[in-house]
């Protein structure tokens, strides 16, 4: 059996600079391949982000002309319920009479509505406790002890400004971004 | 590992030693694709294609899983969901085109890999199991690709499903029940689509499992090489890493360039326009054709036009299946002790005729079943069966082969090109 | 054993195939296959070039807007564009307000439900909506079109061999049937002769009948050729709105991949540089020893 001289694996007698230069090309090739792999990761991850048709419904226009004071409607925005309520003057007064220091989540009615249209209370219809849809938007539903909304799941009571007053919910009903594109149309989102 | 000089795994860090002691994955990787797997030093670029097939599978699985997040497997929604992917999903067009063209490239590299095996006698002892497992992978690939093509529920999807499942009805007695069982009904419909989606998602992982067996079976005797001469001494081999990892890296680069060219610039070239029309069970397309990688088999299927005891349709089905099944018997049909076509000049001639024959069959398969293409397919089919079942067995009895080099190192020392005209047999004293 | 069985199986298939071949040859020699009438009269699409051709193609937004105008005024009454949403028209260069106006004023309304009675109703389209179909279903479409179904045009350019040039040739290809067209191939009731159409006779009446049928907003003269060209470009966009991302993404990817492959080539050569040097065989296979042995044999007069 012939004997063998292995010379691969050990650095041959070349000057230090030569060895470093030789390894450099290997490192460069692997690094560039790595960068390519990382770049490929972007579309693979980004495809899970909302697609163009979902984003198109990120914003909706709602016609509120038919909502009388004291009435509310439910609608859907980004696949979640929205309550749009036309507050009566008494409801506005009741909301402003509360000392915000007593609130779990201090906010005034003015902070939760648009200037000049304080009577329009637009909130998500999602209880901030564990996500049930509170009652009170439709005619005849239980509006809780504070005249706003009542969540039957664990007994959270919201007032006429949609603020948490009693029960386990930690925060007020979320107010989405909205603006009035006309006196009778509001754009949500 | 089979070679006693294979380098042992030596963990470089404490963490690796800890891991290896508890789960010998590091040494498994080292011994199969690392520095611990000795590979003949004289492999040419045809040996790149196995790894490329593995890379193609990974690309298909990754893009497939991601596409499945958006695909709707209902007859009403499938076509729409594919358009949703193309238009609305972020980079969805890229994922869809990559998956579709990736399938074509998977078949290209697999076919080259198979023909490498045919030329260099890779199917011969002791690698018969590698060959058989490879054929199982090929069959699974074809099933997976067929079912995948049905999913978009376009005209070709539907009618290809109809034709291929219809073939089963040619089998006497049990044919129709089998066809109904496959379809879940009397024609391709919702049950067919749902089960094809389920199986299309499953089979690639089965393929991955069989590939593991395929590589395991290969690593017992070790890789073959272009001379077909066994590895005898340590200087016949090089460690897989870094030599063949570097070579495969370059090969992968070329593969990805080809794939990118198709995906970005000619994404629909290998497809059929009719599949952009939603499936209509009441309207048959003018020409039903499968994807290009099935064309040779489609040509064989359509070559049998006249009844002969059995109906022509049944002959076509039998021949189509036989054309693949006969490959399972190749190690026992071709018993020549010389492995590599490099040293079998007569075999080489027939091999190249076979290549031409398969290309002709492929070309005919993509065309309508009209004359003179049917006659050409018939001639090509005759040659195909004759090649494997008549010519090769006879050849191994009567051919005159060229003398082999004594060892791999010898053939390398004298230059790769000299392999085909080796040195002549040396006296026994010099045998390595 | 395997070889014997295989031999007979092979012989079997060869024989049966040869039998089919024999009959095929007899039939072919006896009666040469005739060119079909369709094949004889059918014409390939006229070559046409578009701004989006080739690897560096891009859409001409002005042209797409003109094409959209043709679609809206000529085609939309019968042909849907169901995979395209109004919001996609931003790609054509329209502003958000213009898109909203187009959707709002679209001549076909989107199916919806009367919120009070629950009855089927329609509403004006929003940008998020896809183009509503001109007919509620296929049956209604056929009833209105002499039992012919006007196909949805969202994918027509990709769904037809020949693509945009085919669409353009078809739209301007209507002509009187040639004198030598056999009677059974002449257009019957409700059909029109068009050699670009695979069956020669198409159910769609010529849609572009006169120059100036549409008045382009940008003032381009609306000849029939121009309208066909523009609407073909628009339909190409409708079928493949992401074409520009695809082509430019491709250029970037290819540049990167070529660079990476060149580096991989050098790394490969670098790694293998040491391999050849290590093929140094010693002992009986050492070329020096071989030479010495041969010299010794010559001196001793031994012939091996």
Describe the structure.
The complex is a heterotrimer of chains A (189), B (432) and C (304). Chain A has helices spanning 16-46, 52-56, 89-96, and strands spanning 4-5, 60-63, 72-77, 80-86, 120-124, 147-151, 156-159, 164-166, 178-182, 185-188. Chain A has 189 residues and is an alpha+beta fold. Chain A has a single domain, classed as Rieske Iron-sulfur Protein, CATH 2.102.10.10. Chain A starts with a strand and ends with a strand. Chain B has 432 residues and is an all-alpha fold. Chain B has 2 domains: 46-223 and 242-288, Cytochrome Bc1 Complex, Chain C, CATH 1.20.810; 296-423, no CATH class. Chain B has 16 helices and 2 strands. Chain B has helices spanning 14-22, 25-33, 49-68, 78-87, 92-120, 128-150, 155-167, 175-183, 190-219, 240-265, 295-303, 312-325, 330-333, 345-365, 373-398, 408-413, and strands spanning 38-40, 237-239. The two termini of chain B are 21 Å apart. Mean pLDDT of chain B is 92; it is low at 417-432. Chain C has 304 residues and is mainly α. Chain C is extended, with a radius of gyration of 34 Å. The two termini of chain C are 42 Å apart. The interface between B and C is large, with 71 and 64 residues.
Task: Provide the descriptors you would attach to this structure in a database record.
heterotrimer, A: 189 residues, alpha+beta, Rieske Iron-sulfur Protein, 3-stranded antiparallel β-sheet, 24% strand, disordered N terminus, C: 304 residues, mainly alpha, Cytochrome Bc1 Complex, Chain D, domain 2, 3 domains, two-stranded antiparallel sheet, 10 helices, 5 strands, extended
């Amino acid at each position: 059996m012939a004997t063998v001289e292995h010379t691969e694996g050990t650095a041959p007698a070349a000057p230090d600079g030569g060895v470093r230069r030789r390894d450099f090309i290997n490192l460069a090739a692997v690094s560039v391949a790595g960068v390519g792999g990382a770049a490929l990761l972007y579309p693979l991850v980004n495809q899970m982000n909302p697609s163009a048709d979902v984003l198109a419904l990120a914003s909706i226009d709602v016609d509120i002309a038919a909502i009388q004071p004291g009435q509310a409607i439910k609608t859907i925005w980004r696949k979640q319920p929205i309550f749009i309520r036309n507050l009566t003057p008494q409801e506005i007064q009741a909301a402003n009479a509360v000392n915000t220091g007593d609130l779990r989540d201090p906010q005034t009615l003015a902070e939760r509505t648009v200037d000049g249209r304080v009577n329009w209370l637009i909130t998500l219809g999602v209880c901030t406790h564990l996500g049930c849809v509170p009652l009170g938007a439709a005619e005849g539903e239980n509006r809780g002890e504070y005249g706003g909304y009542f969540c039957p799941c664990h007994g959270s009571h919201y007032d006429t400004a949609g603020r948490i007053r009693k029960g386990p919910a930690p925060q007020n009903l979320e107010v989405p971004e909205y603006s009035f594109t006309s006196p009778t149309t509001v754009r949500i989102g | 590992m089979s070679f006693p000089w294979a380098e042992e795994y030596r963990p470089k860090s404490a963490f690796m030693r800890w891991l290896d002691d508890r789960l010998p994955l590091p040494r498994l990787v080292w011994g199969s694709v690392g520095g611990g797997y000795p590979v003949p030093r004289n492999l040419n670029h045809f040996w790149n294609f196995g790894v490329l097939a593995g890379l193609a599978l990974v690309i298909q699985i990754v893009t497939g899983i991601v596409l499945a997040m958006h695909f709707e497997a209902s007859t009403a929604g499938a076509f729409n969901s594919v358009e949703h992917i193309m238009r609305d999903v972020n980079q969805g067009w890229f994922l869809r085109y990559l998956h579709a063209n990736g399938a074509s490239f998977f078949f290209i590299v697999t076919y080259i890999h198979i023909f490498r095996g045919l030329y260099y006698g890779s199917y011969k002892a002791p690698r018969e199991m590698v060959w058989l497992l490879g054929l199982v992978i090929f069959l699974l690939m074809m099933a997976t690709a067929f079912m995948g093509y049905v999913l978009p529920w376009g005209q070709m999807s539907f009618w290809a499903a109809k034709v291929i499942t219809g073939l089963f009805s040619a089998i006497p007695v049990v044919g129709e029940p089998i066809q109904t069982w496959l379809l879940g009904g009397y024609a391709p419909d919702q049950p067919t689509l749902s089960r094809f989606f389920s199986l299309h998602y499953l089979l690639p992982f089965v393929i991955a499992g069989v590939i593991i067996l395929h590589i395991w079976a290969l690593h017992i005797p070790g890789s073959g090489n272009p001379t077909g001469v066994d590895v005898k001494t340590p200087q016949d081999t090089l460690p897989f890493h870094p030599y063949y990892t570097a070579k495969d890296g370059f090969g992968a680069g070329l593969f990805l360039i080809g794939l990118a060219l198709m995906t970005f610039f000619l994404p629909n070239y290998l497809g059929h326009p009719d599949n952009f029309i939603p499936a209509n069970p009441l309207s048959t397309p003018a020409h039903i054709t499968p994807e290009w990688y099935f064309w040779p088999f489609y040509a064989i299927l359509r070559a049998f036009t006249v009844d002969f005891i059995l109906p022509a349709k049944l002959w076509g089905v039998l021949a189509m299946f036989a054309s693949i099944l006969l490959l399972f018997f190749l190690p026992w049909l071709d018993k020549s002790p010389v492995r590599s076509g490099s040293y079998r000049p007569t075999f080489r001639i027939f091999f190249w005729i076979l290549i031409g024959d398969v290309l002709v069959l492929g070309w005919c398969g993509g065309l309508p079943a009209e004359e003179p293409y049917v006659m050409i397919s018939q001639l090509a089919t005759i040659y195909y069966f004759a090649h494997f079942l008549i010519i090769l067995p006879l050849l191994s009895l009567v051919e005159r082969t060229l003398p082999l080099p004594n060892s791999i190192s010898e053939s390398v020392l004298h230059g790769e090109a000299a392999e085909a005209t080796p040195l002549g047999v040396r006296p026994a004293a010099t045998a390595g | 054993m395997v070889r014997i069985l295989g031999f007979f199986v092979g012989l079997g298939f060869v024989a049966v195939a040869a039998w089919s071949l024999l009959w095929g040859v007899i039939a072919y020699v006896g009666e040469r296959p005739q060119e079909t009438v369709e094949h004889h009269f059918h014409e390939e699409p006229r070559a046409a070039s578009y701004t989006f051709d080739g690897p560096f193609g891009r859409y001409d937004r002005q042209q797409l807007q003109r094409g959209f105008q043709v679609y809206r005024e000529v085609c939309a009454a019968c042909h849907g564009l169901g995979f395209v949403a109004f919001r996609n028209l931003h790609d054509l260069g329209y502003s958000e307000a213009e898109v909203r106006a187009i959707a709002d004023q679209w001549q076909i309304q989107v199916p919806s439900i009367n919120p009070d009675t629950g009855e089927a109703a329609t509403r004006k389209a929003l940008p998020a909506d896809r183009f509503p179909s001109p007919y509620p279903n296929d049956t209604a479409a056929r009833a209105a079109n002499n039992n012919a179904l006007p196909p949805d045009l969202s994918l027509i350019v990709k769904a037809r061999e020949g693509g945009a040039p085919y669409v353009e040739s078809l739209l301007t290809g209507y002509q009187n049937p040639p004198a030598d067209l056999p009677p059974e191939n002449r257009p019957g009731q409700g059909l029109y002769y068009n050699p670009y159409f695979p069956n020669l006779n198409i159910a769609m009446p010529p849609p572009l009948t006169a120059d100036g049928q549409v008045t382009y907003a940008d003032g381009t003269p609306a000849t029939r050729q121009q309208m066909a060209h523009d609407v073909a470009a628009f339909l190409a966009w409708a079928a493949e709105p992401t074409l520009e991302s695809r082509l430019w993404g491709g250029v970037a990817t290819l540049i990167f991949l070529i660079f990476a492959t060149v580096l991989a080539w050098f790394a490969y050569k670098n790694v293998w540089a040491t391999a050849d040097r290590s093929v140094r065989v010693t002992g009986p296979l050492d070329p020096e020893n071989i030479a010495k042995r041969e010299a010794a044999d010559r001196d001793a007069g031994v012939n091996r």
